[in-house]
From TrEMBL:
This is Arginase. Coiled coil: none annotated. The lineage of its organism: Bacteria, Pseudomonadati, Bacteroidota, Cytophagia, Cytophagales. Belongs to the arginase family. It comes from the Bacteria. GO terms for molecular function: arginase activity; manganese ion binding. NCBIfam families: rocF_arginase. Keywords: Arginine metabolism, Hydrolase, Manganese, Metal-binding. Binds 2 manganese ions per subunit. It comes from Algoriphagus aquaeductus.
Length: 316
């Protein structure tokens, strides 16, 4: 069996709604209520966040708290790089989705020669940049950070010079080269995008398996085709944003969207994908219990986490 390491990242500064930093602990409460021994099996490591920046107020309208985001990304990057060098399999429990960029930077830094593919299960494409973001929330930008995209063709904002200097630094964490080719991204259930993102999806021919397609093809076929799309990649990272689930289920998350996956679909999908031997890291993000009742979102997310991890363990 591969050595699994749980990584906790309680960042919420890059989300537009407060509370995603509590997602990790909500997962633990869900585990206790379920009387699961999950959290006794793997000892977790905690990555320092920069949520204290929230008290100071935001100075960057088109990339909110980018100074804090930069710090967190460096922390996540160095943690993940070390774990990968120790041949550990990181299972990352995170808050806002921006930190997935740090995860990807770390994976790439540990094995720069390996071509890295990404399976992004999410309602959103998270391909924005400070030049295109409609909200300024940096959880909408991680894939642009790691692919080193500015998307100036679709520029709508005029970010401040200081914002752009942080943006340049972020893109260079782990080295001044793209960590992924955008063509090596596969989306699943992405259904709420803005024009600048649609432009990039088209430009790079990024494959998205819509919810309808998931239902049409069935989970095993989708998993198979997603992995086939990334056949030339040497290692794979799976990012599971709980807002990929239908908004009737994903109440406890900052940006819920209708027409998403069912719980069963999400569980089967992750359990299937993680069997591929190239997968070297799995991440779950954006649980926000302050928007929820009875910790429902975390209970569902915990089921996904537990079953996906079991599939990983059983297949090694
Ligand atoms: N990881 C997420 N929940 N991302 C939501 C992004 C929503 C929207 N595209 C924005 O940039 O504001
Ligand atoms: Mn996301």
């Amino acid at each position: 069996m591969r050595k699994i390491k749980l990584v906790e990242v309680r960042s919420e500064i890059a989300a537009g709604t407060r509370g995603a930093s509590l997602g990790v602990d909500a997962l633990k409460i869900a585990s206790l209520d379920k009387k699961s021994n999950f959290f006794t099996q793997f000892d977790p490591i905690n990555v320092p966040d920069a949520n204290n920046f929230l008290w100071k107020g935001n100075k960057h309208p088109h990339a909110k708290y980018i100074d804090g985001v930069y710090q967190v990304l460096k922390n996540v990057y160095s943690t993940i790089e070390s774990l990968r060098l120790e041949k550990k399999f990181p299972i990352v429990l995170a808050g806002d989705h921006s930190t997935a960029a740090g995860t990807i930077m770390g994976i790439k830094a540990a094995h720069p020669e390996k071509r890295l593919g990404v399976i992004w299960i999410d309602a959103h494409a998270d391909l924005h940049t400070p030049y295109t973001t409609p909200s300024g929330n940096m959880h909408g930008m991680p894939l642009a950070m790691v692919a080193q995209l500015d998307n100036l063709e679709c520029k709508v904002n005029q970010p401040l010079a200081e914002t752009l200097s942080y943006w340049e630094k972020i893109k260079k964490i782990g080295g001044d080269s793209p960590k992924i080719d955008p063509r090596d991204v596969v989306f699943i259930s992405v259904r709420d995008t803005e024009e600048p993102e649609d432009f990039l999806i088209k430009k790079y021919g990024i494959k998205n398996f819509s919810t309808a397609e998931v239902r049409q093809l069935g989970i095993s076929k989708v998993a198979q085709e997603a992995l086939q799309t990334l056949k030339d990649c040497d290692q794979l990272y799976i990012s599971f944003d709980v807002d990929s689930l239908d908004s009737s289920i994903s109440v406890g998350t900052g940006t819920p969207v209708p027409n998403g996956l069912t719980v069963e679909e999400a569980i089967q999908l992750n359990a299937e994908l993680i069997k591929d031997k190239r997968v070297c890291c799995w991440e779950i993000v954006e649980v926000n219990p302050t928007l929820d009742t009875e910790n429902t979102m975390a209970e569902i997310a915990f089921d996904v986490l537990e079953i996906t991890t079991k599939s990983l363990v059983d297949n090694f």
